[in-house]
Write a structure and sequence with these properties.
The structure is a single chain. The protein is mostly helical. The chain has a domain of 211 residues. The protein contains 15 helices and four strands. Helix 2 runs parallel beside helix 7, helix 2 runs antiparallel to helix 10 and helix 3 packs antiparallel against helix 4.
Length: 335
């Protein structure tokens, strides 16, 4: 009887979660019809971009246990490769998007291979250096990238003969990109591949003893994370319409890492919460311009003091179901 009651409670929670997700999705779809402010829509689009980027970086940091500080270079590669192909060859955005994703994935693998034996601070320094090398190349390769002047006038994409250029159209495009990334990460998280990466992250030696090869999974994590970041970078380029090396500095990687840590590593809801909070909070505190960064920093410190594993960290993700059911059964007995 107790077991049936607990199963009923679990089913009710699952139904509630599904209704909440459906309500959020309906709200996001209807937002442009409810909110006419272009500034607010821009914040929503920024949230979509950072959610996708945070999930791609969380795959590298949270799932595979590689502390990367150069993720912004993959983001920038997608933007630059797509832009250069569109502007110099007249290629369609959709073909340029695929080529940039493939090229960035290959470069991600080439970066990962020599760093597979590095961990912690050493890997962070190497990836940070790689990101700075990318920025310096884009700054000094003036014959191709125009250097610090950047690339203005990025053409808008077209779909079935319709040019996509309005803020509302980019809003829906960004929403689709974000939902595709979330869906992919949910599928990966619930697959044997995702669970194998978590096992490898916990203990390389133990994982190797049961046939999980760390090198393989670390390499794939870097490649998949790089490809997702390239997709997002391509969307960012056509949305903003202008890119320059200053758009892809190491501060971008640090911001993404902060979103991963704040939300919770190896957690999809955590990545969403972390990205939304650290995107909206600076804008919400803009009215307090003199104290904005102080309040922003204080909020981060308080979060790390009271929620050191993040808003939705690994402790929530892998909680022991048996213990929860046991506690629920005890409460039922007492009542």
């Amino acid at each position: 009887m107790i077991t049936n009651l607990l199963k009923g409670k679990e089913n009710q929670l699952q139904v509630i979660k599904k209704y909440l997700l459906a309500a959020v999705l309906v709200f996001l779809v209807c937002t442009p019809k409810i909110i006419s402010s272009l500034y607010v829509l821009h914040i929503f689009i920024s949230c979509f971009i950072y959610i996708a980027l945070t999930l791609s970086l969380n795959l590298i940091i949270g799932w595979s246990g590689q502390f990367s500080l150069g993720h912004v270079c993959f983001f920038g590669m997608g933007a630059y490769i797509t832009t250069l192909l569109m502007m110099n060859t007249g290629m369609s955005f959709w073909f340029a998007l695929l080529i940039s994703a493939v090229c960035t994935g290959v470069l991600g693998a080439l970066l990962c291979i020599p760093t597979l034996k590095l961990r912690g601070d050493y890997l962070a320094v190497v990836t940070l250096g790689f990101g700075e090398v990318f920025r310096l190349v884009m700054t000094n390769w003036t014959s191709v990238t125009r250097g610090p002047m950047g690339l203005p006038g990025i053409p808008s994409p077209s779909l079935f003969g319709i040019s996509l250029h309005s803020r509302v159209q980019f809003y829906y495009m960004g929403l689709i990109v974000m939902l595709l990334v979330v869906f992919f990460m949910v599928r990966l998280n619930n697959s044997g591949f995702g669970l194998s990466m978590l096992a490898m992250n916990d203990d390389d030696i133990a994982a190797s003893s049961i046939g999980i090869y760390p090198v393989k999974f670390k390499l794939w994590a870097f490649v998949i994370g790089a490809v997702i970041a390239a997709f997002v970078g391509s969307f960012y380029a056509i949305y903003i319409g202008f890119i320059s090396p200053s758009s892809f500095t190491y501060q971008g990687s640090i911001t993404m890492c902060a979103m991963v840590v704040l939300g919770g590593m190896a957690s999809i809801p955590g990545s969403v919460f972390g990205a939304v909070i650290l995107t909206v909070l600076p804008e919400a505190l803009r009215a307090f311009s003199d104290y904005r960064m102080v309040l922003y920093g204080a909020t981060m410190v308080l979060m790390m003091l009271f929620k050191p594993m993040g808003i939705w960290g690994i402790d929530k993700r892998i909680r022991n179901e048996y213990k929860l059911k046991t506690k629920g059964g005890r409460k039922w007995k007492q009542s």
